[in-house]
Amino acid sequence: MADLRLARGQQLVIATHNAGKLREFEALLAPFGFELTSAAALGLDEPTETGRSFADNARLKALAAARAADRWALADDSGVTVDALDGAPGIYTARWAGPDRDFDAAMLKTHLALVEKGAMSPQSRTAAFVAVLCLAAPDGRDATFEGRAPGILVWPPRGARGFGFDPMFQPEGHTRTFGEMSEDEKHAWAPGRPGLSHRARAFAKFVEACCEF
User: Fold this and answer.
1) Into which CATH architecture does domain 11-210 fall?
2) Is 139 considered catalytic here?
């Protein structure tokens, strides 16, 4: 892993065109004083995600944005892995939502796939949200950080907060879904307390390695 450190006030591109993901990054990064912009705001193209892992795709997106903008860039690749579906949808989570990013349809598709497998009990619907963050410099250096949040998939979905599979995902040790939780509940973290969500857990590792408190 490259030794990359960010200073307060650093210009940083968030390499996403996903408005929900951008809001989460802005909330997480607010204490660090970075000058943030997004790949979408800069008019950067979305690279084709050809990687075979979350880390591959996060690195691909971060390096593409860093080189195109000539600034440091932070990207993530994330999704839900379902044990009964042999890890699907995994890195293809967004593709299950189709070109219109219809995650209601993606959640239904996942539920029906579980029904077809006979996975109806909570014990048979175990899953994990996974996020890998990649920080990249314009010169090609990069570092990646992974976070995982285990839980189960419920049906029907509950809650209108968050985005993606949040209303279907009930994290381990909790009775509410991510869709029923506030941003602070999901993403709040502190040194030694990495937070509940996959993104918060990846972010805590990123901060420890790359940011000035």
Assistant:
1) Alpha-Beta Complex (3.90)
2) no
